[in-house]
Structures are given as C-alpha cells and as structure tokens.
Amino acid sequence: MNTTFARILYGGFLLFTVYHVFVAHDLMTAASNLGIALIFDPFDQKVRWNDRPVWQRGWLIVHLIVMFSLFGYAMVV
C-alpha cells in the first residue's frame, strides 16, 4: 500500500476517534476506530518491525495501549 495513502487513512481514523470521544461520547466506536487505524501503519510498511527506529515502535505500542485502555474503560463505564 502506498505510504501516503496509508497515512491519510490513519489520520482519518484518528480524527474519527477524536470525534467519537469528544463529540459523540461513544467510547466503543472510538476504540474500534483506533484499532482500525493501526491497520494503516503510517510508517514505511516494507520495513520489518526489528529494523524500525525505536520511536516508531514506541508510537505504535503506545497507540495500541491507548486503544486497549479506551476499550477497557468503555467496558467498565
């Protein structure tokens, strides 16, 4: 997949997440949008995980942690 196109989709799903958290107050949909955003890796997808810079791996891991935290919070509330 083209990296530019993946970044646009990634950003779009992040915007959907922000909308669902702050405007629609729908945390489950926000968590699912964060999960879908991870499909569209905003970095070069041809680079293997071990060869990526630490900050890129950290960004994706933090993204995953936020997604699971939002999902868990939505389950409790």
Describe the 3D structure.
73% of the residues lie in helices and 0% in strands. With 77 residues, the protein is mostly helical. The protein has helices spanning 3-22, 27-39, 54-76. It has three helices and no strands. The model has no long low-confidence stretch (mean pLDDT 95). It is globular. Helix 1 (3-22) runs antiparallel to helix 2.
Please tag this protein with its features:
single chain, 77 residues, mainly alpha, 73% helix, 0% strand, globular
The SSE order reads: HHH
Q: Which structural class fits the helix and strand makeup? A: mainly alpha
Radius of gyration: 13 Å
Overall pLDDT: 95
Low-confidence stretches: none
Give me the number of helical elements: 3
Strand count, sense and barrel status of the largest sheet are: none
Task: Tell me the overall shape.
Answer: globular
| Proportion of residues in helical segments | over 70%
Number of strands: 0
Q: Estimate the strand proportion.
A: under 5%
Distance between the termini: 37 Å
